[in-house]
Amino acid sequence: MAKAKATKAKPAAKARQAEKRTAGAKSAAKRTAGAKSAAKRTAGAKSAARAKSSKAPKAKTIAGAPEIARKRPNPWAEQIAAAREATRKAKGPMKEAFDFLCAYSQAKPFATKDHPWGHTVYKGKNKKIFAFFGCSDDELTLTVKLPQSGDAVLTLFKFATPTGYGMGKHGWVTATFHTQDSVPTPVLKEWIDESYVAVGPKR
C-alpha cells in the first residue's frame, strides 16, 4: 500500500512542477512582451520629437556665420550713442543748467534716472517719465507735461514748443535753449513740479 501511494505521489509532484514551470514561462513571456511594448512607446516618442523638431522654423542665418539667432541691429544706435557722448562732453552754461535741473528732478520722491534713446530722463514712482533732458555744448532741451499751464506757456515763451511725435496733443511741451540764451531755471523748476504731479499715480 505504501509503495502504491508513493508511486501515485510522484506523478502528482511532477505535474505540479510542470505547472509551475509553465506558469513561470508565461510570466516571463508577459514581462518580455511588456518590455517590447515599452520599447515601442519610447521609439514612437522619439520619432514624434524628431518630426516636431524638423517642422520647427529655422533661424535665419548669415552666409559664413554660425547658425544662431541674431538680433536685429538698432537703427537708432548711432544717434543714441552720439546723444550720450554729447551730454558727457558738454561744458559751459548749458551743462551747468542741465546739472542743476537734473539734480532738482532727482530730488523728487521716488524719482529714478534712466537713459533711453540716449537722453537723460527721470521717472516717478509709477515708472512713468516726467522729464526728458538733452544737453550738448551749445544746446539744452527740457520736455515736460504741462496739462494746466501748457497753453499759457506756449503763448508766453518763445523757447517753448509743442513736443513732436504727437506728444504735444497730450500736453507735452519742449523748451530749447542755446548758448546765447539765458536759462530761466526757476520757471523750469515749476514746470518739472507740474509734470511730476501730472504723470504721477492718481490717488
Using DSSP, what is the number of strands?
6
**How is the largest sheet built, in terms of strand order?**
1-2-3-4-6-5
User: Would you tell me the overall average pLDDT?
Assistant: 79
- The secondary structure category is alpha+beta
Q: Which regions contain 5 or more consecutive residues with pLDDT less than 50?
A: 2-6
Largest sheet entry: 6 strands, antiparallel
- The CATH level-2 architecture of the largest domain is identified as Alpha-Beta Complex
Q: Shape, please?
A: rod-shaped
Rg (CA only): 40 Å
Count of separate DSSP helical elements: 5
The level 1 CATH classification of the largest domain is Alpha Beta
- Termini separation (Å)? 109 Å
SSE order, one letter for each helix or strand:
HHHEEEEHEEH
* Helix proportion: 40-55%
